[in-house]
Amino acid sequence: MINADELGDVLRLGNIPDEELVGVLGGFFPLSGWQSENCVTYFNEQGHVLDLVYSTKGHVMRCEPGPDLTDEIVVMLRERTRETFESDTGFEVRRAIMFSVPEVSGFWRHGDEWQIMPAPPNAPRPGFQLGEHPLILEYRVRKSTNDAIAIMRSRRRYWELRLLFSLLLRDQITSGSDTLPYHWVMLPEPTTGEVHTEYVNEGYMVGGDFTALADNFSDPAEHPRLLVTPDDEYYARRGVREEGMDLPTCLDAAFDRFDNADARTRDKLLRASYWLDASYRVWDLSKSLSYIAAINAVEALVPKSKPDRCPCCELDRSPGPTARFRNFVETYAANEAPQKRTEMYRLRSILVHGDGLHNLEIPHAWGTLSPGKIQHRELHKAALAVSRTTIRTWFLDAATVPNLSQCNPKVLG
After folding, report:
1. pLDDT exceeds cutoff 90 at 172
2. DSSP letter at 284?
3. Domain positions in the chain
4. Rounded to the nearest 5°, which phi and psi values hold at 212?
5. Tens digits of per-residue pLDDT, 132-170?
6. Which of 5, 220, 283, 304 could cross-link to 107 by cystine, CB 3.0-4.6 Å?
7. In angstroms, rounded to a whole number, what is the distance separating the alpha carbons of residues 176 and 166?
8. Phi-psi map region of 143: left, alpha, beta (phi>0 left; psi -120 to 50 alpha)
9. pTM, whole model, 2 decimals?
């Protein structure tokens, strides 16, 4: 009977991403069930074949053989993992539609990793400058003989790119929802000019000969290269650039650094970028949630302090969450809203603990101003600026330097 260590070797535990291991097992065994807080059990027609045991942080720690795991199943599992992870199937280019404000009127290619370019002329467009304009993202991923793994790799890479674009590009970058929710919408009648209402799916289709899979990147020769603007000028600018999208000087370096960073640094950056992106995505739904997400983006990076107990009274003298937030922002975004940081975090605590709401959500007389609304709007703008600058500076200036992730970037040279 095979033991846990041997089964882990068969399944390449620790040598492949957890999600790909789960993808292989999900395609191999027809049934699975959550048996306890940290254990998922897999079944076949004969019964209970194995367990995946997870850590408290959600990582697969062990593969335990079940009572109905046979040598024949082990041989098939070994062959399945060998086919999936040893076969050098090369790379393919996936293509997806994203949206930007303003419109993309040129292209940018980042080595052999990704490319953005304008959507084809037949693609539907919003018809006004501040609408969400379609663009094509092409990105390279490793192929797999296992369709589930191929799709997973594509979705993972798209997710990473979308979050990094949202962080590094000051223009609004969005994508469609995977769930394709229904909405009530008002549609104009093409002949009468009147408007009618329908309950329809959210979604977008380019049409024509657009395909989601290719062997190589498209030739962008018919489009100019996008303008590159110095970082200080790019990130200091406010409002939408009328001439269309441009890019910061740091863009390629940031993506190179991400691809070469250790897994822990990449994970922290993606978590912080997720919350910043979420802050923009939920703005129309809830200003309070949007604000919480903006502050949470910074908190995803703030180091946890160790208790500093007073030898006499045992009270913890270590910095509290407000001080840790303020100090971290001071390190990485010293010029962003220095007078508002304590007030900024205080509003976050009020919203998180249910002691109040964002003043922009409370109904007021139409078109009127109030100090509370102005204050919260300014804090919200400051929170977004602080979060974006803090995350970007932490990553570009300090995050990948060993043992210096908490240092002031000015001393890193």
Report:
1. no
2. T
3. 4-86, 91-248, 261-411
4. -90, 0
5. 999 999 999 999 988 889 999 999 999 999 999 999 998
6. 220
7. 14
8. beta
9. 0.88
